[in-house]
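Suppose a classmate hands you a notebook page containing two proteins, each written out with its sequence and a corresponding row of structure tokens. How would you begin to make sense of it? This section walks through that situation. The first entry is reproduced here exactly as it would appear on such a page.
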Amino acid sequence: MIRFATSAAALACFAFLAACSAAPSEPVETTSAQIGSCKEIDEHQVEHACLHSFAGPFRNVTASTASPPDVSHEHTAYRVTLPAVSSPDTDADADAAAPSAPTYAGSVSFVPEEDGEYAIYTSSPAAELSASDEHGKSVSFECTTEVPEDLCSGLRLLRVADFEHESPVTLTFESSEPGVLLLIEHLGRGHGHGHDGDDNNDNHERAH
């Protein structure tokens, strides 16, 4: 589990950022438990992503349906601002003095550097997310599960999807909150790409 004390956190974050820029190491076996229904990901991978949510690097973007900003940089936590959109119509029987809550929405663009499975982490379960390819066709998530708060308080929901090399994906958010933290990590080769389990492990290590 991750604990952030004032002095210890500074040292841990420095060592972590240095490790991310270091040369890839040989694959290391892990016995971490899987997270919820997502068998493709375990606690070790979530802890790695969680450090990025606290230590960065960070980038600020504003989601847009007209021109979605790019969120393709590896090991980067994006602070996504969601513009306000029209509130739903107030029910005729509802109390007129209690207006409906505002809704925020917008899209970002992700271009995968490799084929395979990607973990899409967001900071709030309140942010609904959908994905579509460059032709507007819906892209399904292989799994969606909450991240336990004691494992990572900065990233609370994760989804896993299988993306293709350099095929743009539009990620569209709708939320009751005006912003969300987004982090996308490559897990390895996915289904249908002609690679076995050993390649999955090898690609996961190279991605980090």
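The notebook's second entry, a different protein, reads as follows.
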Amino acid sequence: MMFIFLTNKQRAFMNRIIFAIILVFFIFNCERNKIEIGYITWDPAYELETNDSVYFIDPYDATVTFSDQIAISDRGDVGIKLYNINSGKFIRKIGKRGRGPGEFQNIQGISVREDSLFVLDVGLRRASVFLLDGTYVDSFTIEDYNMNYSSLEITNDNKFLFYVDSQDMETAFFGHEYNSNFSVLESKFIKPSEIYENVSTTEFLFHGMSVGSVLKKSENEILIAPLYYSGKIFHYKRDNSENWELVNTISGFVENKIPNTVLDNDQGRKPDGVGMHALIPGNRYFVIYNNTTRGLFKIFDNQYIHFTEMDYDGNRVFGFELFDMDLNLLGYNIIKSEEISLSGEPNFFDLFVLQVDSDDKIYVASREGGENTVKVFKLDKSKLEMK
């Protein structure tokens, strides 16, 4: 065995070399892991047609059909509105308020399977089926259905996946899988504690804790971005035993990992919302929504785009995260930004992304300025500042 002895001067020199190597490695990794922030100007290509007899009050969900149409559910002007995705021209309205066949009380999630349109009705606790020409086909009472907010996905084996909420945080499940005629609840999955690690019971009680944005990645995989977003997207997969399990957590971009801030009173910054609940001391609390999801979709080149609204660098911003096909975060692009106000109106944008079609046109429900519109934007990949 050979020993090498260094003088104090040599040892000090070696220490400096080692420190320099570590410093270079640290800087390299910081640069490599740094999230690129871009700014993009968005101007709508057009708005979906409205007039005195055709208008939006509360657009909630949308699905693209196989015949160049987009169907949009409207909880206010109760019914489904069909539009041409190339021109934005109105085609027809399906359904109306009522309790009879083909009528609705409180519609929410919708989905298309071949030439059939499936519509969830919260008020009547049923699913109605229509042809795209507006013809009513059938309706199904949904067993064991307890929900306030709901979305719907349909798999190739005719399984219906609901994402619902509950007032009981301990026993709630967000995912419910039904058979093809809604008569059997086959499985439950996604507990609130799995995706809402930083949300208090108080907030859960008031908000009902809607699950947020849901994307069917494949027939046996879904991605979930919680409504109150902490910078994590959750990847669930159905295994060979037909059980759904959490297989991956994808890191996104937020400045504040706590999605909500509950205030003791409404002094200082204007709260985004005021909550009231019998189980909350004083029955009232004030909340700031630090980060919320605004839509999760697959776009060009099998990339993924996640729209969010959040507090960032002293501003309230609306923008999107962009992920590659392996769900690695590429960066964040800011679309709209306003300095956070400590008085006056709450600091949030009334913008919600309803759908992205196969041509990467983005359908945005806007309630800004007191008008309810659906604006269509074209996402131009060449203008994105992230690569």
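A careful reader of the second entry would note: Residues 22-33 have pLDDT under 50 and may be disordered.
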